[in-house]
# Entry
Amino acid sequence: MLPLDGLATAKLSARIITDPRACHLHDPEKLAGKAIAQSLGGKDKAAWDIYLFYEAGSAWNDSPPAPIRWAHQLQGSEWADSAHYHSGDGLVSELRHIMQNLTSVR
# Structure
């Protein structure tokens, strides 16, 4: 999404989240970002700086499944629901809250 983005920076960024359940992909054509944006109402947009949480066992077929929770950092976005916008410490807090809710014993 940024001028210096590429395979080398993607490999460096993938080292940040080491949980084996996380999947890191390099997508120079933004195909995933476009599919995600469209699934959230952003026709002809590309999602980035977005955090998606899916039901266990969810699979992508022709399009991504609907996330059960999500958050983004797309301030002023015309398509990403502002109710899901968080940044800085607020983003960290929201992501922790989502993870706690999704991983708690039910």
About this structure: Strands lie at 50-53, 69-72. The first strand starts at residue 50 and ends at 53. The helical segments are 7-14, 31-39, 88-103.
